């Protein structure tokens, strides 16, 4: 087992402990690795927040494990997917908490994918003005990226992640053994965040990603370990390129994810977002053709989508991009990859660059025609 730490964004508060162990399934030994559980108040009731898919496969076992640890838990189960990152889902969870007598000593334990991480983080940071948070991520996406964070967001009807809060989790347990029931689509979806890290920061990591097979468990554990340590380094350093890397391809990807109304996973949407952003960088003269090709190649290798679906109107995509947190002065502000492993940094040391409507729409069009060419060649 390896243990990493990332800093608390509030000075003087404890860092977050991240434990990585991959050799076990969900059992008492795995949970006992969460040192924080030895300190939790045995008198208070703790909230175990999860979704119905995770509950179906793990809740029985989890209840028994917490019972063995003499930790009183109250499970709250929400629907799977993005509908649980809404104010309505948050209200439902608050109502459930009101019924059970939560105290300041209660901990929120989020067990699930990135959606559960965001909902439990937002809950822990707001209920009684702040409770402790423990995260046990169960998707690749949440293990390699979403859980290693102190930002927690909910969606609004007009865009993704528009309400949020900041709270450093007390502890995070990453165990690839928890992924055994995750289907192939969600494994690949999660790898999009590892590919993001590689495209922005590490050509060697991109080579490792390009060479292997997601169904090889040993390879997957290695990819998770590298992604987690890169993210932990980025969280601790918190430099301009680190902050930019975290959201590479997301301004466009989030708009596409929002438009898809659950049809596309987060990783699938940001794969398209990164491909369009690569078109944008090439068009703006910020990168070369090889870098553009590297984007399409790596996502295609993992069976991830790269092309904006035909049914999405480009002006509609732009109107949703306008709701992005960083949109200002009629411009989308987004990072660009210069060459694989390096982000564009401007003269002021900033990585968020302004792109106007015309060039973004042109990049979206080029992306759509890239798709048509590929499809035509495939049919020939
Ligand atoms: N910094 C951050 O906070 C951050 C970073 C990246 C993504 N995110 C957010 O994460 C969300 C996406 O996360 P996700 O891709 O994990 O989606 P998700 O949480 O919806 O999980 C995907 C699917 O996998 C199922 N599932 C979860 N664990 C399982 C398991 N072990 N076995 C079988 N099925 C399982 C879920 O029920 C769901 O149907 C998005 O809302 C995104 O905005 C947040």
From TrEMBL:
Organism this protein belongs to: Hyaloscypha bicolor E
Classification via SUPFAM superfamilies: Dehydroquinate synthase-like (SSF56796)
GO biological-process terms attached to the record: aromatic amino acid family biosynthetic process
UniProt keyword annotations, A-Z: Cobalt, Lyase, Metal-binding, NAD
Name of a matching Pfam family: DHQ_synthase
This protein's name: 3-dehydroquinate synthase
InterPro entries named among the record's database cross-references: Dehydroquinate_synthase (IPR050071), DHQ_synth_fam (IPR030963), DHQS/DOIS_N (IPR030960), DHQS_C (IPR056179)
Domain called 3-dehydroquinate synthase C-terminal: residue spans: 190-326
